[in-house]
Amino acid sequence: MRRERERVDEMAAWCDTEVVLSVVGGKWKLLILRYLLLGTHRFGELKQALSTVTQRMLTRQLRELEEDGLVSRTVYAEVPPKVEYSLTEVGESLRGIIDQLETWGSWYREQLKNQAGDSQAHEHQADENQTARDGCVSVSAPVIDTPRPND
């Protein structure tokens, strides 16, 4: 039996970092959010972009992001049913943070390359040139100041 996760509004005793990790933590949530920063997408498009995620896990992660107010799910009365996912204003507020994490990831990868030396640099370069990486589509947005709740 799956344990119900705590709702964000019930996390009063948690520190802010614990709340953040509860909302966007895990292997897939940041990648889902990053892809939705590019615009509205159907489930199948998300599944294709994140090819190694299972359908069950993608469904679960999207539901949690929707419950937490980051993702909006729109169902159209069509046959077959059409469902689209997009970011809410709260989800969109993560753009600058996700961009900063991506910048840090690039910097960190360079640090690892420098530590590994030239002998392994060629292996890393080949990996960098791989085009079909899950969730690695450019959002190319300027870093913005994210509003804080008490500002």
Automatic annotation (TrEMBL):
Alphabetical list of InterPro entries matching this protein: HTH_HxlR, WH-like_DNA-bd_sf, WH_DNA-bd_sf
PROSITE patterns referenced in this protein's UniProt entry, alphabetically: HTH_HXLR
Keywords: DNA-binding, Transcription, Transcription regulation
Bias type Basic and acidic residues, positions: 120-131
Gene3D superfamilies for this protein: Winged helix-like DNA-binding domain superfamily/Winged helix DNA-binding domain (1.10.10.10)
Keyword set includes DNA-binding: yes
HTH hxlR-type domain span: 15-113
Chain positions covered by the region annotation Disordered: 115-151
GO MF annotations, alphabetized: DNA binding
Pfam families noted in UniProt: HxlR
Protein name (Swiss-Prot/TrEMBL): HTH hxlR-type domain-containing protein
UniProt source species: Streptomyces caniferus
